[in-house]
Design brief:
Layout lengths: L19 H5 L29 H7 L1 H52 L5 E3 L10 E3 L1 H7 L3 E6 L6 E5 L26 E2 L11 E5 L18 H6 L2 E6 L2 E14 L12 H14 L17 E8 L5 E12 L19 H4 L5 H5 L1
Parallel strand pairs: 6-9
Antiparallel strand pairs: 1-2, 3-4, 3-7, 5-6, 7-8, 8-10, 9-10
């Protein structure tokens, strides 16, 4: 006989559900009717990104943004700080270089100032050519290569003349024999191919064009007729006697121009040479005009000229009078003339200092 089960009686003894979700879910007790429900803490729901305001981001990142801003401002200032430091370094270097140049020129000037005591003149209203004198023994004791002294009134040109074994020796060697940076002005020197007593028909003298106007720099300032004619008188003093010269041409050329010639086969060759210089001159004579056939002996003064690459300014002057007894081209005079007063000639000892 089949058993009958009472579903209500045996319901409690039924097997537990195999559904894990139902097994783990705790039984919720229902509060009695009318009882208050316990409060549940409210958790703020995160807002979607599109609901976040810019001010919220700014507030949350304020410390970091402030730090970034400070770094940005520092970054903008740093380039200017670098520029300032570099500028100061350049300024200091420029001042040091300028000081070195000034020291160089002053040192060279003092060296020639010390030599001025050896060139003097006798007192008198109108000086003769023989009145111009130099203490040759004193100069030869300093430098045995000394062969003369050149003086151009109203200019800085007032220097001893030397002659080396070649034309390179005295380019950067001072009169006292010193070399190097402080002797960059060198010394006025006679061409090594010339006779040391200035007895050649054409004698060549060389000098630097210094930026302070010293040595032969003045030659480049005589490119106008006015300046050229204001400085035509030149005096060259030697142990054998003195020469008075008068300039007749100024040529603007380059270092590659074979302009220097010291000896000539005959008078015609020499006159052709002189005429070429008259034709090429950039200036014109005023007052006493010298022609090729009237010039018997000459000297040239050469220096650098900076308006062109490897430029040269070369001044040509004729010997118009000399006290040298045995000069082969110009008759000598016991006294000669200068046209100088004692006041004007006395500047031989001070003119370089004033001009520089």
């Amino acid at each position: 006989m089949a058993r009958k089960y009472n579903k209500g009686k045996h319901a409690a003894h039924a097997a537990p559900s195999s559904d894990p979700r139902k097994a783990s879910r705790p039984e919720r007790s229902r509060p009695a009717h009318g009882a208050s429900q316990p409060s549940v803490p409210q958790v703020e729901r995160p807002r979607p990104i599109h609901e976040v305001s810019r001010s919220d981001v700014s507030r949350s990142n304020t410390p970091r943004m402030a730090e970034y801003s400070r770094k940005a401002r520092r970054g903008k200032k740093d380039p200017w700080r670098v520029v300032l430091v570099v500028s100061l370094v350049v300024l200091i270097a420029a001042l040091i270089a300028l000081g070195a140049i000034v020291f160089q020129y002053v040192s060279q000037q003092r060296a020639y100032d010390d030599l001025e005591q050896y060139a003097s003149v006798q007192d008198g209203e109108n000086l003769t050519l023989s009145d111009l004198s130099v203490d040759w023994a004193a100069l030869q004791a300093i430098n045995p290569d000394v062969v003369g002294w050149i003086y151009v009134p109203d200019t800085p040109i007032n220097y001893p003349i030397v002659q080396g074994d070649d034309n390179e020796e005295y380019l950067h060697k001072s009169f006292d024999g010193s070399t190097g940076w402080a002797a960059s002005a060198g010394t006025i020197f006679l061409d090594s191919k010339n006779a040391s007593g200035f007895s050649d028909r054409n004698n060549a003298l060389y000098g630097h064009h210094m930026n302070d106007g010293s040595m032969f720099a003045a030659l480049s300032d005589w490119m106008s007729d006015e300046q050229f004619n204001a400085h035509r008188d030149i005096y060259v003093l030697t142990p054998s006697g003195n020469y008075r010269l008068k300039s007749f041409a100024l040529i603007k050329t380059t270092g590659s121009d074979a302009l220097v010639q010291t000896s000539f086969s005959n008078d015609e060759t020499y006159q052709t040479y002189i005429q070429d210089k008259l034709d090429r001159s950039v200036v014109h004579q005023a007052g006493e005009v010298l022609s090729a056939d009237s010039i018997k002996q000459s000297m040239l003064l050469s220096t650098c000229e900076y308006s062109q690459s490897d430029g040269r300014a070369v001044l040509f002057a004729a010997v118009v009078e000399t006290t040298v007894a045995n000069d082969p081209y110009v008759s000598s005079s016991a006294e000669g003339t200068t046209g100088l007063s004692s006041d004007q000639s006395a500047e031989m000892g001070s003119q370089y200092e004033e001009a520089a």
